[in-house]
Amino acid sequence: MVLRLARTNVEAHLFIELHPCETCGETRFTPPSSVVVVGDDLASRYAGPCPRCGTEREFTFRLPEKVTLPDEEEPAFGVDGGASEIIDAGEWLWVADLIIRNTPAEPNEGMTAEQRRQALIDLRIAAAAVGEVIKFVPPGADAVPVHALWTERGRSVYDAEPGRFRKIRLEAVQRTYRELSDGFATR
After folding, report:
1. d(Cα 145, Cα 158) in Å, to the nearest integer?
2. pLDDT tens by residue, 90-146
3. In a 10 Å sphere around its CB, with 0-12 CB exposed, 13-18 middle and 19+ buried, how is residue 115 labelled?
4. 113 & 167 share domain
5. Residues 96 and 176 placed together within one structural domain of the fold
6. Is the dihedral of CA 137, 138, 139, 142 positive or negative?
7. Do 107 and 160 fall into the same domain?
8. Which residues, at least 6 apart from 69, have a Cβ–Cβ distance to it below 8 Å?
9. pTM of the prediction?
């Protein structure tokens, strides 16, 4: 059995969230994790019952050689520079889009300090997700290749607007999300 690498715990949890229960469609699934040995690899195993229907679910990912601790202020899904093995380029852009649809672009007078902080983190997560799309662009290329879209969701995002997968456009979007996040920083 060849396990795919989850570069961080955050990436593993996002993958799990993107794959709802096949029986009932529930996306919530927060089972305990355990470290197991699969073949010659250390792996992280998430297993337990679906909270809605009770169907047993299990996800197992190869662990990276170097485990990094998350930084809440600077979200990162993969710290090694390589593209994800478990979430395709289109899904990363879908995640960024989902976050942005639910996040204000600028602070307003009625926001609490906690709401401002959450918007800052959400915008940084969206920027990090776009950064993950950029990792799929091969050196010397100007766009994400079609083979980097292996899921139905990822391909549908690409098919809707392939120009969004050009490197220059992705870099501009990532930079914009970072700049917007800075507007929420507490001074």
Report:
1. 10
2. 999 999 999 999 999 888 888 999 999 999 999 999 999 999 999 999 999 999 999
3. middle
4. yes
5. yes
6. negative
7. yes
8. none
9. 0.93
